[in-house]
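Reopening this one. Same input as before:
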Amino acid sequence: MFQTNPNRQGNMEFVYIEELVPEDHLLRKIGETINFSFIAEKTRPLYSPDNGRPCLDPVMLFKMLFIGYLYGIRSERRLVEEIRVNVAYRWFVGLSLTDPVPHSTTFSQNRRRRFVGTSIYQEIFDEIVLQAMNKGLIDGKELFTDSTFLKANAARGKFETKKVKASTQAYLDELEKAVDEDRQSHGKGSLKKKTKSLLKKKSG
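Same output, byte for byte:
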């Protein structure tokens, strides 16, 4: 018997985002295996404890970056949009189905300016990727950013740290390039000059 399903897009439903993420989803396995709390402790000294506006959660910031790295999303604007519509991405970064995703500009400014003049940004990102690889959550597949293959060390089952650092830096460079291209398409100047200016102010 021919029939069509009624349109239920406007219906209100009561659901738990936890139940919408499959048990075998890669991000669930990563979330259950890697303890991301070290990020908060490592970045705490770089934030003012009682001045200024509330910051973008640094754990969320690095989890968002990790999603982009893992799934080859080279644009911050697209990364924010993908997290907005993907239930598993929302769950991984700690957002509910109705929580707003940080605006791409807010995300970009935090990524660029918050840790300027320090190496902590690269260190944390590298550590997350290395942990995921060393625990077998990411295999030796081709990386999205620079076509570098990560080859496991047969003796220790570890991945080469130098290659991981090179690949994560390549991904960050891709984000920088995408931001500048987007600004240029809107008639704005490169943010690289602004970053250099911030470095001079800090050193001065």
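So the earlier flakiness isn't reproducible anymore. For the record, The mean pLDDT is 76.
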